[in-house]
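note to self — DONT lose this again. spent like an hour looking for the file last time. sequence + predicted structure for the chain T wanted, 211 res
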Amino acid sequence: MALPRRAALGALLATAACGGRQDPPPAPARPPSYAHLTPLRLAVARIEIIPPTDPAATRTMPPAPLAPAEVVRIMAEDRLSAAGGPGHARFLTRAATLTRETTAAGGVFTSGSERITCIMRCRLEVLTEEGGPAGFAEAEVRRTAVRPMGSPAERARAAEEVVRQAGDELNVEFEFQLRRNLRALILPPPGAAPAGTPGEGTPAPVIEPAG
């Protein structure tokens, strides 16, 4: 009986070794683009994209090949355009998080599941030439999905899907809030503006990242 026992022990050790191997971390995902959409041209001299400074506002639990904060920043840079005018605007990322919560523990033959939640919240503030408030618009979305706790690659793909969906929803909600709260500052596309419209014939849009 010694030989079968040794064989069984060897098989168990081999299985443990295979199970202990870690998959390589997921490669960074290609970020989304919103450049194909009509820019939101604002009658301001410049627009500052201000990154978040609070680590809690950008908490991202791995595996996460696509960072929510990066998606929010890209959306702002692709959609917002400074068309010229008095004052300036600043875009702030209030929250861009990706969190995970175990919803069911796995067994010997079944994998567990987890809830993936992505929250994105942003704010655009318009300031006068003197620096006083002249208006603002805020948008927030929350996207949640329950997925199996499979391999790191599978979990990464699930997180990427949730983040992309949240980014698409934030883009829609942000434009809606902008047109509702700052309609007077939104200019038509170049060539479509009537004569005398502020910003007509102004230089190319300028978006300045905050230092």
